[in-house]
Amino acid sequence: MRAGGLLAGFSVFSLFTYGYLAWDAVGDRESADRTAGLEKEREAEGPSSPSPSPPHLVFILADDQGFRDVGYHGSEIRTPTLDRLAAEGVKLENYYVQPMCTPSRSQLITGRYQIHTGLQHSVIRPTQPNCLPLDNATLPQKLKEAGYSTHMVGKWHLGFYRRECMPTQRGFDTFFGSLLGSGDYYTHYKCDSPRMCGYDLYENDNAAWDHDNGVYSTQMYTQRVQQILASHNPRRPLFLYIAYQAVHSPLQAPGKYYEHYRTINNINRRRYAAMLACLDEAVSNVTLALKRYGYYNNSIIIYSSDNGGQPTAGGNNWPLRGSKGTYWEGGIRAVGFVHSPLLKNKGSVCNELIHITDWFPTLITLAEGQIDEDIQLDGYDVWETISEGRRSPRMDILHNIDPIYTKAKNGSWAAGFGIWNTAIQSAIRVNHWKLLTGNPGYSDWVPPQSFSNIGPSRWHNERVSWTAGKTVWLFNITADPYERMDLSSRYPDVVKQLLRRLSQFNKTAVPVRYPPKDPRSNPNFNGGVWGPWFREEDKGKKKKKPNKNKAGNREKKKKTKKKPNRRKGHPFNCFAGR
């Protein structure tokens, strides 16, 4: 950040911060009035039922938080709120997500692996006519069926090219946040490429221009959460999905949060630390609001990162290997915990295998909802595992199979014993074993001292010396969670068993949906806003009929140069398998 911009920004930051704190003051003054109104509503409902109501469900999803980047994992970044909530709840220390934003969010919302939604490859780009398949039931939809009010605040990143893909069409009563994967924390603008820029802040289905006040998104989202909690009746079950933008790049934070991190020389790490400090405070304010408005005693708070940290953007996953975007443990093993007065084993650590798809059946069961028999879920109900310390029903995790990712040059069917083409990027966990094939991604270990300079400096990294032609790796993750000892040559029979399991999963996969860019997505065609651009009438437009005058047509062909055929993209729909 340039010095001039930083100094100029500090005064603006202080104004934003004042507004953030001032809201709490206003909230305190209005709290009594709101409480009185809710009490009247409760009296009108009559005496309460002796059976407890379903719990309020609060899911907080951080963005790009590294495995080490929490106090209780040894970080130099202070996270007193996260540390306390985790210590009083259950820490999830064998908890897995996906290596990038869209995949983790899609699996949380559907309880299904990427191979079963067509989102196996990368993330949904702003310009792609793609979204979470419309024929997939979503978590908020099932919770609404169970009588919950459902609200989302924060980052969507599950596609928006048509209105049916928007959060309010996928089960949320209200939505306040961004549609894209990243953007400026203050202006809420995002440029996908030169001359392809737009505003990305929404209130339900419309651009939230009224909130274009330069407020830092972490604080703005927390204010909205406080407002939702203040206006809702705590006797009615609530699902609140808070998907913070932090700590994803761009690295921006209000000035006051840098106070404890001036000694961090690495500018990216310093900014990241300030962003995480602000996020920790935000979680504190959400928890206080749950208590203030009468939700806390019947609530379950789940905290999770969506993927591993990105070292080049300040995140750290030490002592795990790899980073965001990879299938090494540093990309997929996440910070996670559950905090709730309803937990039976408070203050404990859960080392059982848990995956982000498990939240779908777990939360619906807690909500006393129904899961249709025809829904082929990949998640398991793990509440008893978390709350009571029982064994996890999960024995394996398909981390992913991506058939269109860059193929490993030396991969082959022969290297996969004729069972699997090891050129394909894939990763699977079965009990203690983890198998990777193809190109798993950046694989260094990045220790904390890497951030002592401007880097992170590769001089401080533990570099990997690759064996020529290697496309298969096998690890015993229980004994070797840092993936330092490749056992693929020692246990070929285990490799074969896991390759067969991969092959079985692959038989259930639907085609990958990764359509090319659609020029109609440009915000300049949509009032300067990122938003739905596909119209149903576009789908039914007929081609112009050719001129009946064939002679005239032949003359025209002679006079005009032949235009090259344009490559056609995928059909404009979200349905899997088409």
TrEMBL record:
Q: Which CDD domains match?
A: 4-S
Keyword tRNA-binding set for record: no
Q: Ranges for the Sulfatase N-terminal domain?
A: 55-367
Which Gene3D superfamilies does UniProt cross-reference here?
Answer: 3.30.1120.10, Alkaline Phosphatase, subunit A (3.40.720.10)
What segment(s) does the record annotate as region Disordered? 34-55, 510-578
Q: Which Pfam families match?
A: Sulfatase
Compositional bias ranges of the Basic residues kind: 555-570
List, as start-end ranges, the regions of compositional bias called Basic and acidic residues. Answer: 34-45
Q: Which domain of life is it from?
A: Eukaryota
**What InterPro entries does the entry give?**
Alkaline_phosphatase_core_sf, ARSB, Sulfatase_CS, Sulfatase_N
Q: Which GO terms describe its cellular component?
A: actin cytoskeleton
Cofactor dependence is on: Ca(2+)
Q: What Gene Ontology molecular function terms does this protein carry?
A: metal ion binding; sulfuric ester hydrolase activity
Going by the UniProt record, its keywords in alphabetical order are: Calcium, Glycoprotein, Hydrolase, Metal-binding
As for family, the record states: Belongs to the sulfatase family.
What is the official name of this protein in its record?
Arylsulfatase family member J
Organism expressing this protein natively: Salvator merianae (Argentine black and white tegu)
